[in-house]
Write a structure and sequence with these properties.
17 strands; about 40% helix; about 425 residues; five-stranded mixed β-sheet; single chain; globular; 2 domains; D-Maltodextrin-Binding Protein, domain 2; alpha/beta; Bact_solute-bd_prot1; SBP; three-stranded antiparallel β-sheet; Extracellular solute-binding protein
Length: about 425
């Protein structure tokens, strides 16, 4: 399972950072950041694929030692990383950071600008969506690794049994949700109890731009942004009619419902395919992959959902070697490791590998699912931005928008409450809120 995607779905609590925006920068103590290269680097990542990637890198570079350290998944790592940065010691050379959390570390000065290290020449190496997500204020801070082009996973057996058409638009998705419940009240089109990562990605797919960041100036528009309004309208209809299973992702109940054919679709990043094959064994041969329902009939768009890349700490004394590892992981031998694990690499070469694209998946009934991932990856708008405090934002999502699920507020009202909280927090952190 791609844990990067998992954390993105689940939503995170706020990263502990009490320092000022400038004061969170990593310390250069102990070296000049560009002096004699050590042959050892430390990588922080919770993804098991990082260990195998490090082994492959060391096999090609026998004089190099790469230590991979798991200090915790997602938010646990971010808290540990921030604490080490604030202390000026104990931080790694390389850290895997999810796309939505990247600005929070980049804008503090904690991460190195990868352009001078070689990233400026790599723009054509990665798919447009992941490449755009690797930059903050047009500066490259990350080499994108495992990508999450968003598709619709659907249980074909459910749709066949209940005689419901697989939806091609989001209006049809609401209709299909109604028809599924009418035909079998034990089955839902989707589970959702408030999911910041899912909402952000679907707003992205709707070509929404609710967040805008330029330097320390932040603009938040969760009221009039067209993509946000589209999402709010569809989700309000799903909530009003109790068409969503009240079960959180990654719980035992969620896995049980999937195995018992009680959840019909999962709009998610491509990494969900790996999750299904491992956790939903009863679904083998039943599930298929399609492009996301369209917000406008005939206009195909997707989004990134989950995924992230390797960053280099500004305080690292071994930036050149760290960059060599990051490039190997994301555009070299590490790409093959991701492909073997059923994950979608950010490297654009994967989209041009005909054998990889046409490879049939037994779990998905012989479908060449990689072709669907490639199509989705090519249809990701590059205009979406995350907040420089997105980790905090996702952490309070259920306190605001999430209240719509118990009918305390409407989805639109929840977005307004979310914006009020984010405006206040951003100003407290020293950003200029516009």
């Amino acid at each position: 399972m791609n844990t990067a995607g998992r954390v993105g779905l689940a939503g995170l609590a706020v990263v502990a950072c009490t320092a000022s925006i400038a004061g969170c920068a990593a310390s250069d103590e102990g070296g000049d950041g560009g002096g004699a290269e050590s042959q050892k680097i430390t990588v922080w990542s919770w993804d098991l694929n990082a260990e195998e990637t490090a082994d492959a890198f060391m096999a090609e570079n026998p004089d190099v030692d790469v230590e991979v350290v798991n200090v915790g998944t997602g938010n646990d790592q971010y808290v540990a990383l921030q604490n080490a940065i604030s202390a000026g010691e104990g931080f790694p050379d390389v850290a895997f950071i999810e796309n939505y959390a990247l600005p929070q570390f980049a804008l503090t000065g904690a991460l190195a600008d990868l352009g001078p290290l070689g990233a400026d020449g790599l723009a054509s190496t990665y798919a447009p969506g992941p490449w755009a997500s690797s930059k903050v204020n047009d500066v490259v801070y990350s080499l994108p690794w495992a990508s999450g082009p968003m598709v619709l996973f659907y249980n074909q057996a459910i749709f066949d049994r209940l005689d419901v058409a697989v939806p091609g638009t989001w209006d049809e998705y609401v209709t299909a949700a109604q028809q599924i419940q009418q035909a079998d009240p034990a089955v839902y089109i989707l589970n959702d109890v408030g999911n910041a990562g899912l909402a952000e990605s679907l707003i992205w797919q709707a070509q929404g731009t609710p967040f805008s960041v330029e330097g320390e100036a932040v603009a938040i528009d969760l009221a009039d942004d067209e993509g946000t309004q589209r999402y709010a309208d569809v989700w309000q209809r799903l909530i009003d009619e109790d068409l969503l299973a009240p079960v959180a992702d990654w719980t035992d109940d969620w896995t049980k419902m999937l195995n018992e054919d009680q959840i019909a679709t999962l709009p998610a990043g491509s990494w969900m395919g790996s999750t299904l094959t491992q956790a939903v064994t009863e679904g083998a041969g039943k599930w298929r992959v399609a492009q996301l329902p369209e917000w406008e009939d005939g206009v195909a768009t997707s989004a990134e959902h989950g995924g992230g890349g390797f960053t280099i700490l500004e305080g690292s004394d071994h930036k050149d070697l760290a960059f060599e590892f990051a490039e190997f992981a994301t555009a070299g031998g590490g790409v093959e490791i991701l492909k073997e694990r059923g994950l979608w690499p950010s490297s654009i070469d994967a989209a041009n590998d005909e054998a990889f694209l046409s490879e049939p998946s037994e779990y998905f009934g012989g479908q060449a699912v990689n072709e669907e991932y490639a199509t989705a990856s090519a249809n990701v708008p590059d205009t979406f931005q995350f907040l420089p405090f997105q980790v905090y934002a996702n952490g309070i999502y259920n306190d605001t928008v999430g209240q719509a699920y118990n009918h305390s507020v409407t989805v639109a009202e929840g977005f307004a409450n979310w914006q009020d909280s984010l405006d206040t927090y951003g100003a407290q952190q020293g950003f200029t809120i516009q």
